[in-house]
Amino acid sequence: MASQAPNQVPKAPVVAEAHEVDTYHPPQKMLDKHPSKPHLSSIEEYQQLYKESITQPEKFWGTKARELLSWSKDFQTVKSGSLENGDCAWFLEGELNASYNCVDRHAFANPDKVAIIYEADEPDQGRNLTYSELLREVCKTAHVLKQMGVKKGDTVAIYLPMIPEALIAFLACSRIGAVHSVVFAGFSSDSLRDRVIDAQSKVVITTDEGKRGGKLIGTKKIVDDALKNCPDVTHVLVYKRTGADVPFTKGRDWWWHEEVEKWPSYIAPEPMNSEDPLFLLYTSGSTGKPKGVMHTTGGYLLGAAMTGKYVFDIHDGDRYFCGGDVGWITGHSYVVYAPLLLGVSTVVFEGTPAYPNFSRYWDIIEKHQITQFYVAPTALRLLKRAGNHFVKHNMKQLRVLGSVGEPIAAEVWKWYFEVVGQEEAQIVDTYWQTETGSNVITPLAGVTPTKPGSASLPFFGIEPAIIDPVSGEEIHGNDVEGVLAFKQAWPSMARTVWGAHKRYMDTYLNVYKGYYFTGDGAGRDHEGFYWIRGRVDDVVNVSGHRLSTAEIEAALIEHDAIAEAAVVGVADELTGQAVNAFVSIKDGNEASDALRKEFILQVRKSIGPFAAPKSVYVVPDLPKTRSGKIMRRILRKILAGEEDQLGDTSTLSDPSVVDKIIQVVHENK
Ligand code: WT7
Fold first, then answer.
1. Which CDD domains would you find in this protein's record (predicted)?
2. In whole angstroms, what is the distance from residue 108 CA to residue 510 CA?
3. Which of 63, 239, 481, 516 has the fewest beta carbons under 10 Å from its own?
4. Residue 288, pLDDT score
């Protein structure tokens, strides 16, 4: 039994808890309007099941895997391997197919049920797809990929905006055993190129253009640019979204609508071993090069289905709306897999919360009578600021309001609860990562009491540990602070970094032996509730997007005029954190607004617009130790206006640079 299991009697606080906050119980009105009742009857039932999931993981997960997923061949071994060895595997011998689980079984039972509610960028241009239509489209597209030479185990790069065809592409890949590698359609051609090469993808799927917030995005052009340096790509499948006149490379580029027409509407799903890879998703780490996080089939799907069922309390008639993009893990798990595995309707929203105006989310929720809504706090901050008059809607069906990707401030939490949810929906602040596959610390809607700002309690199978980063020892008991790790494997954890298992071990499993290290700081309060404090590594979180400072620095120094660069994240009212860059320039260059703009453009070009620094400070030199290590701590303090708290600067090779940097920051603020 875990020593900090949340069901133990809370100990008397050791330290006065900084978060004396109200506890909110699942709203009675939410229970009153529930179509039946939440999947769990009480917090005690959660505690009992949680205990079983930790002490008897094989019994717990074996039962759930057979209950929620359809296996073409049953498994015998629920779990093998260890965190120490980095060889965790689940449901060995078992065989299943992701697209069968997401589509076929619902298409047989309920062919006319809506699978996808497509809300196009323009409010009146969407459409619905039923499960039987989805099955047909997935099968036809699977044929096309096969015809292009895609085989079981091959990766396929998907560079698509938020349209139904993105989901069709995911599922077409999995149907034939191909591994999808989705690249967010906001990434630049250079980033796309790096991911295509690293994943060794030979096929890329894209659109002629994308449309978002009334603006056009030249997706095909970006793909063309990227592929100039990807000689191994043999085929590009292009979905016609806008009808723009785009150049076609003969023999390589194919129109989606012309190709799918040639094929029958059924193809048998490929039986996959539970541990066969389902997808790669690149994410940023502490070093410059993005990691291709690999998820496998059985465990990942179970994590998505389980959290969909228990965290979001999904029931048969629900209409689920996750505002995340399919280019990130949130979209993978909660636009695509969780709702489709559970056979409900999922919204695919192409646009932005601000177009045509700040009511767009609420319009969608009202129009489709959405039951669960899931979004990042950055969008909520924007909408809260826009004003409550945009939120005057009938959203009576809402039972669950999810938050994801970054800490949610108490006042935003309360606004979400009171103004959006009318105190009739439960807020679930879900903590997780690309690597965890699905929610790991989170309330269960209808069950868990919540405190604004806390992600609350661990999900089934997650055994959190707070570790003292200095000693590396686990800190037991409540009212403690440290870094967050997990001491048991769970089904949906990433299995490796594509082509770099050592990097996987060193980043997650070798930091504290026997634990999975999250990279986040966290506290556990007097009642065993978890409070996520943010990253303890060089990862910044801008609008819920994870960026590596090292990656942005690497992009900056590609510019001819830049000698050295240091990037830090600073608190930002709207985006949570913002990227600020300090650069020193080479002799013969003059600091100017035009040059600073060029530097920002450089980052947009090499990574993507979402990574662009908010400010660039051109300084004579960076604060470095004698061994040449840049002291980013000093830069963070200066930006926070804490110049009097710089700490020891005597280890700097030239302490006088500090005053010069302070001067530049003041002049440019
Ligand atoms: C990092 C993971 C997981 C989906 C989106 C981001 C931060 C995530 C929360 C939360 C506070 C959160 C962490 C984590 N984070 N959820 N509820 N409260 N912080 O996925 O890009 O893999 O980033 O996002 O710092 O490590 P990601």
1. ACS
2. 46
3. 63
4. 67
- Max Cα-Cα span within the chain: 73
pLDDT of residue 7: 33
Instruction: Tokens for 87, please give them.
Output: 């060889």
The two structure tokens encoding residue 551: 């990656």
| Span from the CA of 577 to the centroid of ligand 1 (angstroms) | 13
Span from the CA of 404 to the centroid of ligand 1 (angstroms): 7
> Does 271 sit behind a cis peptide bond, omega within 30 degrees of 0 on the bond before it?
no
**604 by DSSP, 3-state: which?**
helix
CATH, residue 612: 3.30.300.30
pLDDT in tens, 158-207: 999 999 999 999 999 999 999 999 999 999 999 999 999 999 999 999 99
Domain boundary pick from 493, 523, 553: 523
Summarize the chain as % helix, strand, coil (round to 5). Answer: 30, 25, 45
**642 lies in some domain:** yes
In a domain, 167, yes or no: no
Residue 294, classed as helix, strand or coil, is strand
Residue ranges making up the domain that contains 279: 28-126+270-523
Which CATH number fits the domain that encloses residue 392? 3.40.50.12780
In ligand 1, which atom is closest to the CA atom of 403? 17
Structure tokens of 558?
């590609």
| Chain mean position to CA 167 | 16
**Cβ 617 vs Cβ 609: under 8 Å:** no
Instruction: Please identify, among 490, 523, 556, the residue that sits at the C-terminal boundary of a domain.
Output: 523
* DSSP-based three-state secondary structure for 435: helix
pLDDT number for residue 191: 95
Q: Is there a single domain that holds both residue 433 and residue 557?
A: no
In a domain, 68, yes or no: yes
- How is residue 83 annotated by DSSP? T
- Clarify whether residues 552 and 444 are in a common domain: no
Residues 550 and 646 grouped into a single domain: yes
Q: Are 552 and 649 found together in one domain?
A: yes
For residue 530, the CA-to-ligand 1 centroid distance in Å is: 14
Residue 367 Cα to ligand 1 midpoint, Å, equals: 30
For the whole model, what pTM was predicted?
Answer: 0.93
Per-residue pLDDT at 20: 59
Q: What value, to the nearest 5°, has the Cα angle with vertex 462 and ends 415 and 526? A: 60
Q: Using CA atoms, how far apart are residues 605 and 226, in angstroms rounded to an integer?
A: 11
274 shares a domain with 366: yes
Which class for 489: exposed (0-12), middle (13-18), buried (19 or more C-beta within 10 A)?
buried
Closest residue by CA, ligand 1 atom 8: 405
Same domain, 596 and 495: no
> What's the domain count of the chain?
2
Do 451 and 574 lie in one domain? The reply is no
Compute the average pLDDT of residues 474-503: 98
Determine the Cα–Cα distance for residues 37 and 30; give it in Å rounded to an integer. Answer: 10
Residues with CB under 6 A from ligand 1: 283, 329-330, 404-407, 429-434, 455, 518-520, 532, 534-535, 541, 544, 546
Question: If you count them, how many residues does the chain have?
Answer: 669
| Atom 27 of ligand 1: nearest residue by CA position | 433
Tell me how far apart the alpha carbons of residues 203 and 155 are, in angstroms, rounded to a whole number: 8
Please tell me what DSSP assigns to residue 124: T
Q: How confident is the model at residue 9 (pLDDT cuts 50, 70, 90)?
A: very low
**Average pLDDT of 131-157?**
98
Asked whether 515 and 83 are in contact (CB, 8 A), the reply is yes
